[in-house]
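**Sequence, structure tokens**
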Amino acid sequence: MADVATIGILGERAAREHELLSRQLQIALNSRVIIEQAKGMLAERHQTSVDQAFAALRTQARNTNRKLADLALAVIDDDPAVVSSLRPPHDPSRRAGQT
């Protein structure tokens, strides 16, 4: 009888852990999508590369102690205070007028 109870408890624990992992992965995926959208918007707005846009996002998140996904969401929502503070560094290898 104790073996059956133990198996039941272990099965329930495994199901809860699986559900938790599934939720965490979904949150990570959603955050990644938001960050990618914000990178694209910043790169287009400032005529720079997506790598430079990501660097600006990451730097601003660190400097303001904000989560990267939260900052990216503010960019997507077109928060003027956030967008104006995100100026990607100029790429010296880029020529004027080059897209």
